[in-house]
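In this supplementary section we document a worked example of the pipeline. Step one takes a protein sequence of length 153 as its only input; no multiple sequence alignment statistics are reported here. Step two produces a three-dimensional model, which step three serialises into structure tokens for compact storage. The input and output of this example are shown verbatim.
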Amino acid sequence: MQESRCCFHRSNAGETMAWSESVDTLLANKDGLAAFRTFLKSEFSEENVEFWLACEDFKKTKSSTQIASKAQKIYSDFIQADAPKEINIDFHTKTHISQNISEPTLSCFDDAQRLIYSLMAKDSFPRFLRSEAYKELVKQQQNSSQKRWLPFL
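The serialised model returned by step three reads:
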């Protein structure tokens, strides 16, 4: 029997609780990532995970023309002054990227990505785990699991 669930809450209780193990576990899980993004949006800091995802995608780029265009898009969206989704990175890192953006490499955003990952891991991720949204997801998944085992409830 297929249960109908909201598209947002597809993970089982074990997966949902596993997200609390590490930010890597959360980011690697499609539903975990969706829940984390929703949480970051509620905190007006979704640019961090969007930048991290853009960098992950960028590092898989093969064509040199695509490397240049994707690098420029990341730079204009997240790095340059007054970018629409400007991330909070230190002056040195921002300057280094700005100086090298004309000839980008697949590693040109690595320092900034590490900083943003660290910020998410040390700040956003613990707040996500303490959030009512995450606690509610875990509770819903646990209730859903119990109902599968006890269909008469």
